[in-house]
Amino acid sequence: MEPAVVDAGSGILKFNHALPEYGPEVIPTQMKQVPEDESSTDASLLENVIVDPVVRGFIRDWDAMEDLLSHVLYTGLGWEIGNEGQILFTDPLATPKAVREQLVQMMFEKFNISGFFASEQAVLSLYAVGRISGCTVDIGHGKMDIASVIEGAVQHISSRRFEIGGLDLTNLFAQELRKSNPLVNFSISDVEKLKERYASCAEDDAAYQKIQQACPEEQHTLPDGQVIKIGRERYTVGEALFQPSILGLELHGIVEQLVRCISTVSSENHRQLLENTVLCGGSASMTGFEDRFQKEASLSSSAIRPCLVKPPEYMPDNLSKYSAWVGGAILAKVVFPQNQHVTKADYDETGPSIVHRKCF
């Protein structure tokens, strides 16, 4: 049986057997609370209780995560109780040690797995495009990570995590849509779908300013029959990544943040890093984002400008959304056959801290 690979984000969880050419299965990470006793009078009260096992990239609700992984592994991947396999998890940048230890503990003690490995998402996203050194700009649902990687190792001194992601862009889009459609009652799930369909990046700052003056509007019918109009709001969402002040944040734009992070690394590595830049995460697939990123990069004050790596043609479509999972599937084919992973014997002998020695 192929090892399982799991990339648990705040918005969606990617999982499958370690077959990179097929890509992952995808399910929402968010869950609805279900009463244990269906006849309970509290059943109707629990119907709309939402549980978020993962918040801003890190596991926060361990009981919910256990339930979610049980569904993924036994129902989704067909594992059998008593015959569990090996599993590789992707680690977000700056994952606390306690979270890594609790995860490995849960997998061995609750799921009785035969082998465990974890690797940082930035390293895996580079593996997915055939690189071992470079930079990743990962815009997930709940966080944005900018990381530099040299020879397969994240350079933490020059990497930064920002608590801004697709969720914040969705909330911004909802706010803007309510201004132009004041009589419409939007649900966040409706806005999330509208963002995926309509959100765009203007070509540059000048183009964005023109759009603010005049922008053609489109009509869209919501599932409940309400008709809304969408115009300049669609561009405000993408612009927030290049002008975070739109979100009320005192931060530099995404390209400038990347250049500033890399400036803390030895200058002899700048070219190797910046010329192998990978965009990943759901928001990176926004219409016009890659072109805008490249244009901003060409205007950068840096002596060496960021240059994007194109994924190999044989990789699955939408690789940017799933690159950490794909890199994990590639790595799983190496670490488990070569016995570089944490075994049950390792765990029994050392305990959860073994994860820091064997998964780095």
Output the keywords.
about 350 residues, single chain, Actin, Chain A, domain 4, globular, five-stranded mixed β-sheet, six-stranded mixed β-sheet, Nucleotidyltransferase, domain 5, 14 helices, alpha+beta, 3 domains
Verbal overview:
Helix 4 (121-128) packs across helix 12 and helix 5 packs across helix 6. The protein has helices spanning 43-46, 62-76, 97-109, 121-128, 166-180, 188-198, 205-213, 233-242, 254-262, 270-274, 289-298, 319-335, 344-350, 354-358; strands at residues 4-8, 12-17, 25-28, 31-32, 50-51, 54-55, 58-59, 86-91, 115-120, 134-139, 144-150, 153-154, 160-162, 218-221, 227-230, 277-280, 342-343. The protein has a six-stranded mixed beta sheet with strand order 3-2-1-8-9-17, with helices on both faces. The longest helix has 17 residues, at 319-335. Helix content is 38%, strand content 19%. It is α+β, with helices and mostly antiparallel strands. It folds into three domains: 4-34 and 47-121 and 317-358, ATPase, nucleotide binding domain (Nucleotidyltransferase, domain 5); 128-163 and 252-299, ATPase, nucleotide binding domain (Nucleotidyltransferase, domain 5, 2-Layer Sandwich); 166-246, ATPase, substrate binding domain, subdomain 4 (Actin, Chain A, domain 4, Alpha-Beta Complex). Strand 1 (4-8) and strand 2 (12-17) form a beta hairpin. This is Actin-related protein 7 isoform X2. It comes from Sesamum indicum (Oriental sesame). Belongs to the actin family. It holds the Pfam family Actin.
